[in-house]
Amino acid sequence: MNVIKKMKQTELHEFAQIFVNAYPGRGYTEDHINGTKKWFSDVVDQEPEQQLFGAYRDGQLVGGMILYTMKMNLISHSIQTGGIGAVAVDLLHKKEKVSLDLFRYAFKSFLEEGIHFISLYPFDIGFYRKLGFGYGGQMKQYQVKPTHFPKGSSKEHIHFLQREKDHDEVLRCYTQFYGRTNGMIERHDVEDLFDANERRIIGYKKSGKVLGYLVFSYERKYDYVCNLVIQEIVYENAEVLLELCTYLHSQSDQFESIKVDTQDEYFHYLLSNPTRGTSDAFGSLYLETTTTGEGIMYRVTDITGIFQDLRDHNFGDQTCKCKLSVQNDLIESNNASVIIHFTNGFAQIVENEDYEVEIGMNVGEFSSLLMGAIDFKSLVRYGLATLSDCHYENMIQRIFRTDQKPMCFTSF
């Protein structure tokens, strides 16, 4: 039987050892252990929105995790959400349900705090799918020549940004972007963007205001050949984006190629040529453009609660009485059926059995649907959702349709 409780400062070195053994690809020397311990120490001492929990068996630490509380833009509404990170289990106690007990505790803890939606970055997608997590937006990495970015008439507003002068403006710019972008997580500071040991940041400045920025690092290939790697692109309008792209276009004699990590599904339209320059193709006709990764995953932990969080959201102006049934085979206590009355787009949970149509799916698929990562008709087409009356398919499609698939820059 595993007992889950907050970790003490005196246990951080032990958990750091567990963590680096669980993720040896990040490094496993004594320096890595000490660096990880410092990270955990900062969590315990300085981060009120992060809490470190351990799993104990007979008093021995056998695993742990960090629980985060943070605000997320969920389909244009800023709601309190939870995050789970740094999940690690002692290698001597693998396959003993330590992770499962950690997650059961996390779900319960977030519900007690009134948090009904959580996210994480998976190390094993199959495991998290069994836990009821659904896919978010895929991350695509482009690798293109600088000249494949559009070139405008000017880059006069582009400057290297500095922590001392520009921190608050960069935060303001990010906050504006957060407010209009589905899936983004609120930030209280952007200090890490100015870490000169790791990255550089340039921005579009006009009348003292930062209206867009690029965060990037350098990737060395040879002494005089490097790539530029972009981690974040934030901009307020097309004019700002064009100047940022003009800056990138002008780097053709400085960098061999530019790598861009983005969840923007339409990014290739911005480029004159989105191919990787390798002439690789598959099916003899399709030129390779990106490397694609599955990243952040989402989970609704309480159906009634999430609709209460979204009580001001307009679900497509639709009027319908619907029964929603969600399942999670691994954690059966999370199974739920609710009656939702949508009136001119606004949802209300009712206690009666008055409904016109029933839809059913796994909680992971429902989480992805609510987040806008997939549409309802696609779930039905793949056999991942059921509908008691096919005449309602278009209406349910409109209820859960979103304008934008989720994006997230924040790692945890």
Automatic annotation (TrEMBL):
SUPFAM superfamilies: Acyl-CoA N-acyltransferases (Nat), SCP-like. The keyword Transferase applies. InterPro entries: Acetyltransf_17, Acetyltransferase_Eis, Acyl_CoA_acyltransferase, Eis_dom, GNAT_dom, SCP2_sterol-bd_dom_sf. PROSITE patterns: GNAT (PS51186). GO terms for biological process: aminoglycoside antibiotic catabolic process. The keyword Ribosomal protein does not apply. Keywords: Transferase. This is GNAT family N-acetyltransferase. The lineage of its organism: Bacteria, Bacillati, Bacillota, Bacilli, Bacillales.
